Amino acid sequence: MKYRIIRVSWLVLAVSAVFLCAAGSAQHAERTAPEWNALGVDYYAAGDWARSLECFREAVRLVPDNQTVVRNLSNACQAYAAQLAEQGEHARAAEYLEEALQRDAENPMPLIQLGSYFLRMGLVQDSIARLEEAILLAPENLDAHELLGDAYYQDSDIPAALAQWEFVASVNPNRSGLQDKLTKAYREDAVEYNFHALRSRHFVIGHAPDTDRALLRQTLTVLEHAYRDIGRNFGNVYPPGPIQVRVYVADDFTRATALGPHVAAVYDGTIRLPISDRMGALIPPEELRRRLYHEYTHVVVRHICRERAPWWLNEGLAETFSDTLTARDIAFLREAYYSGGLIPFEDIEATQVQIEDEYELRLAYRQAHASVQYLWRRYGTQGLVPMMEAIARGVSPEQALLQSYRLNYDQLLKRVVESVILGGY
User: Fold this and answer.
1) What fold characterizes domain 15-192?
2) Domains of the chain by residue range
3) Which residues contact 163 (CB under 8 A, 6 or more apart)?
4) pTM (2 decimals)?
5) Is 206 helix (H, G, I), strand (E, B) or coil?
6) Of the candidates 385, 379, 425, which has an alpha carbon nearest to the alpha carbon of residue 405?
7) Class of 196-303 per CATH?
8) Confidence check: pLDDT of 2 > 50
9) What CA–CA distance (Å, rounded) separates 349 from 344?
10) H or E element at residue 198
């Protein structure tokens, strides 16, 4: 699920509207408060948020009670925070928004931005708190209501999420993407309305009342092992919890997700998987482990890359950390190589790859697996997280690969062919 970075509708920063009466203080400053404010307006107009912020800070220091200057400083904090967030630096962005709130506590816009950024960082409870505050200040703000619905949804409170989204839909029924959220939530609620919860330190599993208890405990144990093992693989990276999980019996998985029977599990902000087939047979322990390790890897990838991970890296990591590239898989890739059918990385770079042909999809998964396995076995953790952090900042996947491994796409594919597909490594 994607969450919009809120872009604030900035107030006009008009020097002529500022009446400053702090001549006594200004006499001891290099510039007067009106001069600092005017300079801040110029930097702001030029898009230099950092310098405008410093100028407004000086103006506020001289005239702390002037509401126009205070609001100008708040606006500059928000603009600079938005720039940092675009670069993937949400924690730093949050610091500037907290400053904006300290200066201008009645402004709801920093609260909405904070709610959005906390949600992106997986800090769901913090997001809920800030967005609920924003709605108290701006009860008609549709961005705040939709984001609060997103936060409630991530907290597995579907009725509360629906209440927020339905309000937004009542005001603006054509709002982009909203109907998809509502349809998905209605579908899941129809299956999960009576789910119970089972908790561990880092996970909450929602399940039907009659789900096999031993298998639920086993699922929690495997997930805690995945939390430890995969976190270490990424150099001790551990997303904030609790991480939401849903397990389904019989055909409830298909009913809740609208995915075909070929899909073994999915991560859409919540780990979802069936633990029994339509006949009620439970999945074997090793297959349960493979699915959970695969989907939990996606949790960590999203935590590091936000929503910018290229498909080949996202799926390649999930395959590498959950399963073995078998001799049969390598033979399949070798046949594709000799027939000239390997897929250029550019074609499997999008965050969501739309491949309907079964053969092409099998090839894409195995090629992604082979590529990441090569990088992992050859270099280990070194380079992996820096590459992913660069992608989170907006660096293109190939450029991030080049920065971390000194390989472009063509060179990586050549190495994979030589070492894995032909060499069997």
Assistant:
1) 1.25.40
2) 15-192, 196-303, 311-421
3) 149
4) 0.77
5) strand
6) 379
7) alpha beta
8) no
9) 9
10) strand 196-199
